[in-house]
Design goal:
The protein is 68% helix and 9% strand. Helix 14 runs antiparallel to helix 20. It starts with a helix and ends with a helix. A hairpin with a 4-residue loop joins strand 5 and strand 6. By secondary structure, the chain is of the alpha+beta class.
Length: 639
């Protein structure tokens, strides 16, 4: 029997144990192959205006995926090697040379990789149409995606993953020479060292997390700490304090909590609580490093995915705020107006309005927090009558402006660094003064065409006829307008007309944010699959070690129901304590992001967290079922 055939039989015999590992690798290959295929896709390049940017995003995502998958495969291999050290020791005892055992393990790992690679590329091709359809939909296009097989993508994927599999196969080969025979026989009894709890370490862990949270919640634009340390240094400090604090949390804090629970003797001696808590005390501390990795991965996945989904979720609202009119442009000549009218469908409204572009002395608006500290600013001035006419057709609240007063429409207003408009007075170059009675964070004119607008009383607007430059705008409202209609209108007017289109701006935003959401979602799924797999391997390795204990309980008459309850409790803590820590970390990070992005991310982030938790929960159910199966089969075998 050759080493290769022996490796093949070993894989077939242990296929159930390798299944989740293979599934995670296959999923990673599918996603990588999809990213590379989309990069070479002619359909995407033809339809998107930002195809070059998308190529860069896909390439960047592929690099991140390669790095993560390499770490995941190496990590998984270490679990499998620990599990099979006794088997390797038997080969050595029977006289098989280390070099031959090493080659056998090398062939096994390489064969697993080759099978995963072939299956991944085939499934990637079959799924490519679905993935491309999802991407096109997220980017706001209505296009039927074709089945595409890219030879370049397949070659790229094969080369990258074969290199990863070769490196990890050599890892298994080298491991044979690092252990003595006696070490291999007792490997299953050796777990990660379980450090003792320390009150000082526990307090330090909590303080580090609080410090990281406090720094993250400081305002990026106004915080003195961020200003002194700099963005990069502060971000690194936040990462370091939260990661180290999380490690110490699992190292000592959870140990103290479990120790306090253990003091409740009435509860402790009920059922298998004593065994459950005793095992958890060891497992939580002994697995502190693994649990920290899970918590950090969960936090990274939820934070990145939640932020991108929040942007996508708010895209339409952001565009509608900036472009309340479907189309708007500055009038040029009568011939152009007729050509535009000829291509327009039925409209909700089609208004011609007058405005003035006026330069104001705005020194009084300047403050230390204002980004634009210039003494002169150009505003588009419209009358109260014009505002209310547009507000009525846009279903906005009407406005009343007092004489010599004004209301400024600043959609980018932020109290941290925007001017304090109320009761401030600005003057024109001819000395005409207006005082802001209030400000609004909405507008009735498209910001891309008119910029920041100022509403004055009707009488005051007449007085402004001698100020600045006269402007005439055409504002149009159309139901279900398309980007094709935008292009038709744009062809009829000159470039200096400052044409702004809500459908076009929405399409541009959907392209960039939709592609980010696609990449973030699928990378997040890979991270989630790997995260769930790591815990799965870890818990099932411990299940093999616990077989004798549960068999002893079985012989003592403990019911299968009690044992299942104990197993479910232990696995629940191992799964959901790092998840809870990760969700807390991501909630704080996303709260900070919401301040930077100036938008409410609560609802989309909650949706993202629920989706992540549900999928993560499926891994918990699978792990509990596999754990119970191992214990039940052992009890039947041992009697």
């Amino acid at each position: 029997m050759t080493l290769f055939s022996l490796a093949r039989k070993n894989i077939a015999r242990n296929l159930t144990q390798y299944f989740l590992y293979i599934a995670s690798m296959v999923f990673s290959i599918i996603i990588y192959f999809t990213f590379v295929t989309l990069k070479y896709s002619g359909t995407i390049a033809e339809k998107t205006a930002s195809s070059q940017k998308l190529d860069s995003l896909m390439s960047g995502a592929a690099v991140i995926l390669i790095f993560f998958v390499a770490v995941f495969i190496a990590y998984s291999n270490s679990f499998f090697m620990k599990k099979r050290k006794k088997e390797v020791a038997l080969y050595a005892l029977l006289g098989v040379r280390n070099r031959q055992i090493g080659f056998m393990l090398f062939f096994e790992n390489l064969l697993l990789g080759l099978v995963s690679l072939v299956v991944g590329i085939i499934l990637g091709f079959l799924c490519s149409k679905g993935f491309m359809t999802i991407l096109i939909y997220l980017m706001g296009y209505d296009v039927i995606a074709p089945f595409t097989f890219s030879g370049s993508a397949a070659l790229n994927t094969a080369i990258v993953f074969l290199l990863i599999f070769l490196v990890t196969s050599f890892q298994g080969y080298r491991l044979i020479y690092q252990f003595k025979l006696i070490d291999l026989f007792h490997a299953s009894k050796k777990g990660e060292a379980a450090p003792k709890s320390s009150m000082i370490v526990a307090i330090l862990g909590v303080l580090l997390i609080i410090m990281g949270y406090w720094l993250a919640m400081q305002d990026l634009f106004t915080s003195k700490v961020w200003g002194k340390l700099g963005f990069l240094m502060t971000a690194l400090i936040i990462l370091a304090t939260v990661i180290v604090g999380t490690f110490l949390l699992f190292h000592s804090v959870t140990g103290f909590v479990l120790a306090m629970i253990k003091k409740n003797e009435k509860w402790l001696w009920k059922g298998l609580h004593l065994m459950t808590i005793s095992q958890l005390l060891y497992r939580i501390r002994g697995n502190a490093r693994t649990l920290t990795v899970i918590a950090v991965l969960s936090a990274t996945t939820v934070t990145a995915g939640g932020a991108v989904y929040g942007l996508y979720y708010n895209t339409n609202d952001q565009v509608m705020t900036a472009d309340p009119n479907t189309f708007m442009y500055q009038q040029t000549d009568a011939n152009g107006e007729q050509q535009v009218s000829a291509v327009l469908p039925d409209t909700k409204y089609d208004e011609y309005i007058e405005a003035r572009s006026v330069t104001f002395n705005t020194k009084e608006l300047n403050a230390a927090s204002v980004f634009d500290s210039s003494d002169k600013r150009i505003y588009t001035v419209i009358s109260e009558k014009t505002y209310n006419k547009l507000a009525a057709v846009q279903d906005k609240e009407l406005l009343h402006v007092n004489a010599d007063n004004a209301v400024i429409l600043d959609i980018g207003y932020d109290k941290r660094f925007s001017p304090k408009y109320k009761d401030k007075t600005i003057t024109t170059e001819n000395g005409t003064a207006i005082t802001f009675q209030s400000f609004k964070t909405q507008t009735v004119l498209n910001a891309g065409t008119a910029g920041i607008a100022v509403v004055v009383s009707n009488d005051q607007f007449i007085a402004f006829q001698k100020e600045g430059e006269a402007l005439k705008y055409r504002v149009i409202g159309v139901d279900k307008a398309s980007t094709d209609l935008s292009e038709e209108i744009a062809k009829q007017i000159p470039e200096e007309a400052l044409f702004s289109s809500a459908p076009r701006d929405l399409q541009t935003s959907m392209e960039s944010v939709g592609s980010l959401l696609f990449i973030g979602s699928f990378l997040g799924l890979v991270f989630l699959a790997a995260t769930g797999s790591i815990i799965y391997f870890k818990v099932l390795t411990e299940a093999e070690e616990d077989k004798s204990q549960y068999n002893m309980l079985h012989k003592m008459g403990v019911s299968a129901k009690e044992m299942r309850k104990s197993i479910a409790s232990q696995v629940f803590i191992i799964f959901f304590v790092p998840l809870a820590a990760g969700l807390f970390h991501s909630a704080v990070a996303l709260k900070a992001f919401s301040g930077i992005l100036m938008m409410d991310l609560a609802k989309p982030v909650l949706i993202w967290m629920i989706a992540y938790t549900v999928i993560y929960g499926l891994y918990y159910l699978l792990t509990v079922a596999s754990y119970n199966r191992i214990i039940t089969q052992n009890n039947k075998t041992e009697g």
